[in-house]
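Re: duplicated header lines in exported structure tokens

Our pipeline writes sequence and tokens for each protein into one text file. With two proteins the header for the second block appears twice in some exports. Here is an export where it did not happen, for reference. First protein block:
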Amino acid sequence: MKKRIFTAALIAAGLSGCALGPDFKTPAAPATASDSYTPKPLPQQTASAPGIGGASQQFALGQEIPAQWWTLFRSDALDQLIRNALAQNPNMAAAEAVLRQAQENYNAQSGSLVYPSVNGQLGVARQKASAATAGAGAGVFNLYNASVNVSYTPDVFGATRRTLEGAQAAVDYQRFQLEATYLALSASVVTTAIQEASLRAQLKATREVLDALTRQLNVIEKQFEFGAVPRTTVLSQRNQVAQVAATVAPLEKSLAAAQHQLSVLAGKLPGEAGMPEFALESLTLPEQLPVSLPSALVRQRPDIRASEEQLHQASAAIGVATAAQYPQFTLSGSYGSSAQTFGKLFESDTNAWNLAASLVQPIFNGGALSARRRAAEAAYDAAAAQYRATVLVAFQNVADALRALDADAAALKAQAEAEALAKETLALSEQQYKLGGISYLVLLDAQRSYQQTHIALVQAQAARYADTAALFQALGGGWWNRKNQ
């Protein structure tokens, strides 16, 4: 009973007192003149174009972002690949382990700082006392002892609370780092899948152009055999075929690299089988694009939240450094028994106890404690500046993605028109050349124009998918809605 009362008194003493240093306050969201991320308001919807990835997209300001935002592309293969990546990617496993480490470090600090240190001790010794000091009691004897020792440092000035505050901020920092890894991984899988689909489409288009040029070369070579065209025409066509053929290998190389990247993101070796192949036509371009309000962005971006927790840690460190300048109290006590035989160890006349209290007040340390506090304040200023920089970059990411969506939609519309005109021009030029109505140089220009516009069209189509993924990533990816799904 005495022990319980003593322990309760120690804890009560520790809970009293104040916590020195600044109380952390969440930074306010940046003040914006409007709900727009860009100087000029965006249109309500983007331009549309015929064909793949040409749908018009509407900006839904303030609409919630789904946690599994990639499902809006309506690709079962993409959805399954991301699930596999989240489960098997080693970076995710590492981030989860670091979070567990931070939590256990907090538990260790909490256990050692908040509660009294209680240790049990049991010992036995055999010794011989000197006759010169012990007199008639000299001789060999055994000494048994058992005791419980309690020691506690009351948190009078808040050093413990600030230390644990900083430790909890470290846990929250790792939690948001995990969310950032989750977002980066899922976005990387989506953009790499889009890149793979784009390269596959570009490769297909290049081979189609190469096939058409090869057929045209066969016609020209027959015409040369009959003396209808000069040899320079044959050489020019062969050169054109060779130039297009030279672009095939780099495209194949880039496509293979994208496939290898997808395997690694999914936690597999590049040589493992079973990886899906993507095509632009298998992906649906989301037509409704949720856009978070600027005031909500700072609570949604995991990198901003992680930077905020670093700022919180720096704030708590000021409190720890401040409390170190004030007195430190320590309370201790023990209760135990000592006897020369084990059987008498717990008899009433062998009991012993003690209570003690001590105070340590720093008097002179060469200004070290003041310097540590100033250093902690400087670290807080640095963390605050880094937080502001993170916020600025986040708003830039969103602004860039929104402008890219608008601009690339217009570019795709123009590119689709250019490709359609180039295709029609090439078809007419081929007919006219067969009839002798135009020169070979005119036909060659038509072929080159169509080749360039066709490849550019595929690239413009892929850009719209990639822009959409970039917007979801810039807005934070909807991780805060995961618990509701």
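Second protein block, exported in the same file:
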Amino acid sequence: MHDNYLTVSALTKYIKRKFELDNHLTEVWLKGEISNFKHHSRGHMYMTMKDDRSRINAVMFAGNNRSLKFLPENGMQVLIKGQVGVYEPQGNYQLYIQQMEPDGIGALYVAFEQLKEKLDNEGLFSESLKKALPTYPKHIGVVTSPTGAAIRDILTTIQRRYPIADITIFPALVQGEQAPVSVASAIQLANKSDLALDVLIVGRGGGSIEELWAFNDERVARAVANSIIPVISGVGHETDVTITDFVADVRAATPTGAAEIAVPSKEDVQQHLNNLNRTMSRGLEYLMNHSKNHLNRLKKSYAFRYPAQLLNQKEQELDKNIERLTKSSLSSQENQLKTFSQLNQRLENQHPEKQVQTTKKELAQLFNRQSRAMNQLYTAYNQKFIRQLDKLEVLSPLHTMKRGYAITYREDGSLIQSTKQVQPGDAITVKVKDGSLDCHVWGIEEEKK
């Protein structure tokens, strides 16, 4: 029997020491495909790196993966820097990853596509969530750097197109590690303010993808999506597209374009006002012509051709109004008498002197109110009657006769309107303003056409 048996732990430590002393294993540059990926709740990432022939277990601790711009996924080809070591409890060798980036495409691009897919699956890009922009905004908020070229372009454009709009700037960092938090906080501050903002412009001028990266951050995207105020995104140049553009209610190609979308042109507003003025003028002209035509039709109506029938009609209406007045008066008197009887009955049952005096006062007030009501009702109907008589007098032939005209009737009382209604020798009656003339027709002379 051999005297120098090793324990499993001792052998594992020996092998681990060999790995640590081998310079080829302490800094390994590896290319492979990720599989069995697991992101632990404590932040560590566990995976298997493989190619078409072999595989090796790997781990990337939270302290190293915190700076990743993308989230590793199964099937992703990556480039890795790390070292090979031994996991003593199981005696397995594994790869400890220190750096990682996608193989063939940039990490920022991968992060962009991953966040875009995530937010799209949540529905944050849905058209149904887009809020409409106001046509004539009174107050505009701007989230950007107060010292950049973007704010100057925005202010100049709004002042040129729609100078009556108020503008409030919410300063924010638009570049660097603190930029996402700064932009998201400024958007939230604008929504919490009591400025009654109508629209919010969020953006910055052009730059590299790294410089624009704050607007590809999930915190900024969610702040835009949660904004009660409609948001216009104006980031970079026309070719630049960010996550903020997809979430915003409206995307503009540049900050200047965002300002142009936010406000109307004063020339367009003036043109719209001119069009409204022309439409209103045409409407008033049509209404006046329609009213004139209606008035002319009324003048030619039955009532104007036959004033006697109109007078009879108004006489009947007057009789009905007098009957209603009489009924109303009797009803009012009956109600008052009923009230009076009830009061007398209460007095007979109770006999308190104070109540008698109070009731007498109430009764006097009721009679006064009744008298005033009767007088008002009588006055109203009397004035209405006088107005109707005035109208009838204007329409009456008697009014016309006072100016020297006469009305001619046949013996049967019908009105003569044409020479064809009489023959020579017919007896006729001519009514003038102060009486009637009995006449005979001696001759007829028709008007030559």
